[in-house]
Amino acid sequence: MIDNRPSRRIIAHTVLLIGVFIIAFPIYYTFVASTHSLQTILRPPLPLIPGGHFLENYTTALFGGIGRIGGVGVDRLLWNSTIVAVLIAVGKIFISILSAYAVVFFRFPLRMTFFWLIFITLMLPVEVRILPTYKVMVDFGLIDTYAGLTLPLMASATATLLFRQFFMTIPGELVEAARVDGAGPWRFFKDILLPLSKTNIAALFVIQFIYGWTQYLWPLLVTNRNDMGTIVIALRKMISFADADTEWHLVMVTCILAILPPILVVVLMQRWFVRGLVETEK
Amino acid sequence: MTKVGGQKDHPVPRAIFPNKVLPYLLLAPQLAITAIFFYWPASQALYQSMLREDPFGLSTQFVGLANFRHVLADPNYLHSFQVTIIFAVATAVFAMVPALYLAVMADKVVRGRGIYRTLLIWPYAVAPAIAGMLWLFLFNPSIGTIAVMLRSLGISWDPLLNGPQAMILVVAAAAWKQISYNFLFFVAGLQAIPKSLVEAASIDGAGETKRFWTIIFPLLAPTSFFLLVINTVYAFFDTFGIIHAVTGGGPGKATETLVYKVYNDGFVNLILGESAAQSVILMVIVIALTAVQFRYVERRVHYG
Amino acid sequence: MATLDLKNVRKVYAGAVEAVKKVDLAIPDGALCVLVGPSGCGKSTLLRMIAGLESITEGEIVIDGRVVNDLGPAERDIAMVFQNYALYPHMSVYDNMAYGLRNRRMAKPEIDRRVREAAATLELAHLLARRPRELSGGQRQRVAMGRAIVRNPKVFLFDEPLSNLDAKLRGQMRVEIKNLQRSLGVTSVYVTHDQLEAMTLADILVVMNGGNVEQIGAPLEIYEKPASLFVASFIGAPPMNLLALKPGEGRPVLVDGTTIGGEGLSFSKEAATLGIRPENLFLVTGDSNGSRPDATLDIVVQAIEPVGAESFIYGDAGKERLVIRVAGKTVVEPGAKIRVGANAADLHIFDEAGKRI
């Protein structure tokens, strides 16, 4: 460090603390709200410290069912979101690692054509082709199913590219050594490639889990039944400004429960996640 | 490495397995999903963009590029375009500048850097729609604590009725969510700058501010450019949830972005042909953005 | 115990690049054959063809009397030591060595016995639990060797195994490899671009250039009778002095007109290049004392490099630059005019095409 003057460091810490405050405040305040009664929330300003309704609100939301969304409990919504996020993350990793393996470690006719076919999908976010994709869902009868919620989001050029990039850094001699050691494609994949990809898989899991958990437009379209909704969609349905009977205390609880799992995943797996996110994009 | 004879004359294939059928099997799952959920719908969007259908699906008619002409001449669409641009620029600026400032500060502190990072990455995990709701809860005119405070200061605050205020609210929520992502990249970018360069500049007598603008900022340009593209794509597409949850495009289309309009015309108003034409226009925009990104920032990939 | 025969082996890459042109080679049981040549000469391609990592365009590779052209690397009963070692980074030293045996479904006690035996031989016994990244370069090298040894193969293949080590370690490992190969008695093929390594290791030396085999023979035989200009210049350090002769003269006259002195010295009319090794040149003092050199040349000294046990004198004869190696120190100074001599038996004559006459 060039400037070691304490004043500089104090300024830096102050700025960072302000940043943390702005970043954290909306989340903190939502948590505070989730511990107050509906009456307190409806009479702003809300106190800055948590109230005494924590247990009551959380128990009601989790297991009591919420009126505006057909009495479905938040436990069911959390389950749906978890299933969707995990299926998307695992599915993406699974199909991407296989296709990257094929593209890097084999030579076959049309190899590059296939690679480009996958690569181009990078440019087509689901938002730009929602209507026809929705039609496909209807035709396949996948509305209100986990398959419908996850399959269209699984094909991912990004994960394939990440694995491809990583595989290309694996020295050719390692493949040759494995072949001399009597390892065929499957053994090489299982014994050498997968263990070496551990970090990448972990990073990708976090990134794709978040991606799956935070989906909005797609689940909004392919779910009609309240009990198949993800927690994010359900939350939207719980709010109405026209309607005075929005159960704000339960909305706040649901908010906190909806952001807690992905935050836990990101914070707990921070090391892999940051490395995977930043390093692979360089 | 002088591994294989004649390496310079021809590309030597990297070490591979000789199997001929297996690679197709490995590719099959991804290709199947890509074909069913990407290429088929995309081609349908293209096809449909040239059809006009009545809302009940009773009759369909091929109209060529008429939908595009109609869409591009529609004042509502052009307004939505304008809204999107304003929204995207504002979101990118408010998501990137504070992130850069925080990253520069984080680069200065020795102790606690990890803690700051942990505390600053939370919003990455928050769904855009929920980010919108968190901010709405603070600023909602009837129960929002900050809204109440603003009103007590004499500011008439109602984002549900006032267009510009609605825009401010969605930009704030969108930028707030994206700061984490930009922060992580700026921190990595700053760490990649050789310390010796900064030291050399300080020996040359450049003060802190000058060092930032003459050394650090130019060297961060690739990172900044990359993030600019990513943030633009984010503002264009990923913020649908914020708009839908917070304003519903209102008041009076003041926050109706392009993606929101595709959804609204296609699923709510059932103007299928024009919605498809809008999808195609969006595709062109994404392709252009991606091309720009790859042209200038090779090997960088957008995760999404 | 195996012989290795290459019959008319050829390799053409897509795009018609001929990487290896018709190689015939017979390696007897237990011999260490070194393929040497500059990068791009086809030596590594040839080795990888023997290993089964590259397909064979034409010809046959025969291990122990069995044509192996269509067998995969694992079925050829060979083991290979790679340039970058190619150790599996996520496996312990033990697992690295055992992996190939496990893939062959060998019984666990037998695997254990073999790994421990090889580890003892290579002094790796205390490192078996380590990961490759926790080892030094020399230790990694040994693990790579151990992985080859445990397999007890018919043929060992070495692909520039010492090129990533520093000079001192390289010399040490060279001796170890030689001793190990001798004591195991396994037929081996060793690729290197380092002529010193090639000379010291080889039972049979194969010099390659541009996909061609230039010469096959015992190292000293090749050193003393290089079959071509390329071999003459590639083997030996500092390299052989090569002087261009005036074409069609049949007399020892250099291209620029400088005449080489000497009675009764005459070459065939095809002679185009005259080669003399630096150590075969000696200083001729003014008065002849007994033995008269067969050939003499007057040169002007340009530089001296004393390296201790010997000195190199760099001088010009006309437009040609020569190196003379003399024992110990030398009293000659730069700028001095000296006369050097050589014996007729030490002269190497090559024709226009670079072939030895």
TrEMBL record, chain A:
CDD domains: TM_PBP2. The keyword DNA repair does not apply. GO terms for biological process: transmembrane transport. It is a multi-pass membrane protein. GO terms for cellular component: plasma membrane. Residues 78-269 form the ABC transmembrane type-1 domain. Belongs to the binding-protein-dependent transport system permease family. The complex is composed of two ATP-binding proteins (UgpC), two transmembrane proteins (UgpA and UgpE) and a solute-binding protein (UgpB). This is sn-glycerol-3-phosphate transport system permease protein UgpE. It comes from Paramesorhizobium deserti.
UniProtKB/TrEMBL annotation, chain B:
Its main location: membrane. The keyword Membrane applies. One of its GO terms (biological process) is transmembrane transport. It is a multi-pass membrane protein. The complex is composed of two ATP-binding proteins (UgpC), two transmembrane proteins (UgpA and UgpE) and a solute-binding protein (UgpB). The chain crosses the membrane at residues 21-40, 81-104, 116-139, 166-191, 212-237, 276-297. PANTHER family: BLL4140 PROTEIN (PTHR43227), SN-GLYCEROL-3-PHOSPHATE TRANSPORT SYSTEM PERMEASE PROTEIN UGPA (PTHR43227:SF9). Belongs to the binding-protein-dependent transport system permease family. This is sn-glycerol-3-phosphate transport system permease protein UgpA. The lineage of its organism: Bacteria, Pseudomonadati, Pseudomonadota, Alphaproteobacteria, Hyphomicrobiales. Keywords: Cell inner membrane, Cell membrane, Membrane, Transmembrane, Transmembrane helix, Transport. It holds the Pfam family BPD_transp_1. InterPro entries: MetI-like, MetI-like_sf, UgpAE/MalFG_permease. Residues 81-293 form the ABC transmembrane type-1 domain. Part of the ABC transporter complex UgpBAEC involved in sn-glycerol-3-phosphate (G3P) import. Probably responsible for the translocation of the substrate across the membrane. The keyword Transport applies. GO terms for cellular component: plasma membrane. It is found in: Cell inner membrane; Cell membrane. It comes from Paramesorhizobium deserti.
Automatic annotation (TrEMBL), chain C:
One of its GO terms (molecular function) is ABC-type transporter activity. One of its GO terms (biological process) is glycerophosphodiester transmembrane transport. Keywords: ATP-binding, Cell inner membrane, Cell membrane, Membrane, Nucleotide-binding, Sugar transport, Translocase, Transport. It comes from the Bacteria. PANTHER family: MALTODEXTRIN IMPORT ATP-BINDING PROTEIN MSMX, SN-GLYCEROL-3-PHOSPHATE IMPORT ATP-BINDING PROTEIN UGPC. NCBIfam families: PRK11650.1. This is ABC transporter domain-containing protein.
